[in-house]
Amino acid sequence: MKATGVTRRIDELGRVVLPVELRKNLGLLNETPMEIYVEEDRIILKKYEPTCFFCGSAENVLEFHDKLICRHCATELAQRLQEE
Fold it and tell me: How confident is residue 5, by pLDDT bands cut at 50, 70 and 90?
């Protein structure tokens, strides 16, 4: 993990402001969706990318019944259903 040398305080609403240089370097624009993970004593922020429910791919993803599925898995699933 790379240290930035920047510290920020949490405000009364629980918010932390990310420095503008960091946002620019990572391509984080206003309204960019972020995922929040907890790993031991660390809070990890990650730019949200919709991924396939089955394989985790972020390429050619579409929504089906409130789930995300990539075209490859959708094609494979359709083929298996035709075989049955």
Answer: confident
The CA R_g of the chain, rounded to the nearest whole Å, is 19
Domains of the chain in sequence order: 1-48 (2.10.260.10), 50-84 (no CATH)
Q: Give this prediction's pTM.
A: 0.60
Q: Give the closest residue to 27 by CA, choosing from 17, 15, 18.
A: 18
- For every residue of the chain, which 3-state class applies, written as one string? CCCCCCCCCCCCCCCCCCCHHHHHHHCCCCCCCEEEEEECCEEEEEECCCCCCCCCCCCCEEEECCEEEEHHHHHHHHHHHHHC
- Percent of the chain whose pLDDT exceeds 70: 99
